[in-house]
Design a protein that fits this description.
By secondary structure, this protein is of the alpha/beta class. It contains ten helices and ten strands. It starts with a strand and ends with a helix.
Length: about 250
């Protein structure tokens, strides 16, 4: 078994309108790592995530848990690589929370008798009360829908979880709750986000993208504290690091 959860070599992608979204991306993520992908809007963060389970297909090589990403093994790769979209409405479309969370396992041919256990565990891991299972996802708050979306991914028991802006548009209490939930997950995590305080809380390694390329890759606190690098790519040092001041 490979030590790499994800290995990307020379990945390129151009959108149909001619926009060059990814250019020569090389990235290795070890099993159990928690990495953040940061950068300005339009850097290519979401596009990169969408290549990890075959939603988009560029040129180059993508390997997930040792398997080359190809149409022939896409089903097996999607068992290993879960993806949480930025907008929960892109993932929730069933009449009830239970059905939304059960949808993935059912489509992976998980035995019917196993589904209730998976749903209950995934909801608990996502910070949801199982009593919500009969409610409509679309009658829940944004924070609750975000957690239902997370539960729907966790129910597939992926080895790797990619998240696209998981805390965007959440109020402070729901944001903090979701960060606590994410911190407790055991999967390999790849989080694309503008929330740099989330990055400091959860990820030990950070990758900086801009204009479709990787410009920096290193230990989170060191990279985010580098004001010159951050400013060069349209970012700012997180307030919490500014308040700490230089190390003595």
């Amino acid at each position: 078994m490979t030590d790499y959860a994800v290995r990307i070599i020379r990945l390129n992608y151009t959108y149909p309108d001619g926009t060059r979204a990814l250019e020569g991306i090389d990235l290795d993520v070890s099993q159990g790592e928690r990495i953040a992908i940061v950068g300005p809007s339009g850097a290519g963060k979401s596009t990169l995530l969408l290549h990890l389970n075959g939603v988009l297909d560029g040129t180059g090589s993508v390997r997930i848990m040792g398997m080359t990403l190809a149409q022939s093994n896409l089903r097996e790769i999607r068992k290993q690589m879960g993806l949480l979209f930025q907008d929960p409405n892109d993932q929730l479309f069933c009449p009830t929370v239970f059905e939304d969370v059960a949808f993935g396992p059912l489509n992976l041919s998980v035995p019917a008798g196993e589904i209730p256990r998976r749903v209950e565990k995934a909801m608990a891991d996502a910070g949801l009360d199982f009593s919500m299972r009969s409610r409509s996802s679309h009658h829940l708050s944004l924070g609750e829908r975000r957690r239902v979306s997370l539960a729907a991914v966790l129910a597939m028991e992926p080895a790797i979880l990619g998240m696209d802006e998981p805390t965007s548009n959440l109020d402070p209490r729901n944001r903090r709750h979701l960060i606590e939930v994410i911190s407790g997950l055991r999967a390999t995590l790849i989080i694309a986000t503008h929330d740099l305080e989330l990055v400091l809380d959860v990820c030990s390694r950070t990758v900086l993208m801009d204009r479709g390329k990787i410009w920096a890759d290193g230990e989170t606190k060191s990279l985010l504290a580098d004001a010159k690098t951050m400013e060069a790519h349209g970012l700012e040092v997180p307030l919490s690091l500014k308040l700490r001041g230089p190390a003595l």
